[in-house]
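hey
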C-alpha cells in the first residue's frame, strides 16, 4: 500500500511539473527600424529573445522591385548591401535563436495582385533570404533565415494566403532540410482585416497579436472583458496556428496606447493568458524601446 502511495505522489509531482512548464513561453522582438538599438549580434547576446524579426521588407509585389529597409543599420543600395549582418545572423542561430524576415510594416509600398504574383514574391524571398537557389542579390549573403513574418498593415489583404501557402510548400522542397517558420502580427480586433485571410490557410506557427493601438481589445487596468474576449477568440479553434503570443509595446513611447506595466503583466495578464494551451509568450515592439525600459529583462522569468 505504501509503495503504491509513494508511486502516486511521484507521478502527481511529475505530472504537475510537466503541466506547469507546458505553459512556459518565450519572447519575440522586432529589430531593424532604429539605428540606436544595437547590432543584431548584441540583441541576441542579451539572452532575452527566442525570436527576432528583422524588419522590414517593405516593398514588394505587383511588379515592384523588392526593397529591404533597415533604417540606419545598412543600405541595400550600397555595394556591400547588408552582408555585414551575415555573421550576426549565424551567431544568433548558433545560440538557438530563430531569425525571421518580417515583411510589410506600417510604412511601405507593397501589395499582391494575384496568386501568381504571390508565388513570385514567395520565390524571391525563398531564393534571397531562405534556402533557395543562390542569388547574387542575397542581402545577407549566404546566411539562411529561419522564416518569414507577415506584418501586413496596408492594402486589402488579398493573396497573402497564397503567399503563405507558397512559402510553406518550399519548406518541404528537395534540398531544404528544415521547415520554414511562418509567423504573423495581426492587430487584436478579430478577425484582422489584413492577415485574416492568410491565417485561414492554416500554415502559421506563431501568431503575435498586437494588443496595442486598439483600445477596444487591449488590456486596461480595472476592466479586462474586452481584452479577455479578444484573447479567447485568438486562442480558439478559429485560428489554426500552433502558438499565440501577446504583442505589447516595450514602453509608453513605443505605441499610442496599450502599454502594460510590468507588475500588472506579471500579476494579472500572464496568469490569465497562460490558461490557454496555445499560449506562446510575449512579443515586444521593439528592441529600441526595450533598451530604454529593460522590459524584457523584467518579465523574462514570468513569461
Amino acid at each position: 500500500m505504501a509503495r503504491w502511495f509513494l508511486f502516486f505522489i511521484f507521478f502527481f509531482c511529475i505530472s504537475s511539473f510537466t503541466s506547469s512548464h507546458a505553459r512556459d513561453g518565450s519572447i519575440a522582438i522586432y529589430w531593424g527600424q532604429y539605428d540606436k538599438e544595437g547590432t543584431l549580434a548584441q540583441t541576441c547576446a542579451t539572452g532575452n529573445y527566442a525570436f527576432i524579426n528583422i524588419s522590414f521588407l517593405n516593398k514588394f509585389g505587383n511588379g515592384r522591385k523588392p526593397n529591404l529597409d533597415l533604417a540606419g543599420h545598412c543600405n541595400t543600395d550600397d555595394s556591400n548591401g547588408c552582408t555585414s549582418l551575415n555573421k550576426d545572423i549565424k551567431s544568433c542561430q548558433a545560440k538557438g535563436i530563430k531569425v525571421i524576415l518580417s515583411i510589410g510594416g506600417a510604412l511601405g509600398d507593397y501589395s499582391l495582385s494575384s496568386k501568381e504574383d504571390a508565388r513570385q514574391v514567395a520565390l524571391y524571398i525563398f531564393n534571397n533570404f531562405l534556402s533557395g537557389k543562390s542569388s547574387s542579390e542575397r542581402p545577407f549573403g549566404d546566411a539562411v533565415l529561419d522564416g518569414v513574418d507577415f506584418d501586413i498593415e496596408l492594402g486589402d489583404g488579398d493573396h497573402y494566403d497564397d503567399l503563405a501557402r507558397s512559402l510553406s510548400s518550399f519548406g518541404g522542397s528537395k534540398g531544404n532540410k528544415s521547415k520554414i517558420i511562418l509567423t504573423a502580427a495581426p492587430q487584436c480586433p478579430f478577425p484582422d482585416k489584413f492577415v485574416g485571410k492568410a491565417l485561414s490557410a492554416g500554415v502559421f506557427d506563431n501568431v503575435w497579436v498586437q494588443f496595442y493601438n486598439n483600445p477596444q481589445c487591449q488590456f486596461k487596468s480595472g476592466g479586462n472583458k474586452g481584452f479577455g474576449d479578444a484573447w479567447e477568440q485568438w486562442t480558439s479553434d478559429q485560428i489554426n496556428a500552433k502558438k499565440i503570443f501577446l504583442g505589447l509595446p516595450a514602453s509608453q513611447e513605443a505605441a499610442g496606447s496599450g502599454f502594460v506595466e510590468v507588475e500588472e503583466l506579471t500579476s494579472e495578464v500572464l496568469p490569465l493568458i497562460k490558461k490557454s494551451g496555445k499560449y506562446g509568450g510575449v512579443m515586444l515592439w521593439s528592441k529600441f524601446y526595450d533598451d530604454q525600459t529593460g522590459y524584457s529583462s523584467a518579465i523574462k522569468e514570468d513569461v
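The chain has ten helices and ten strands. The chain has one domain: 26-299.
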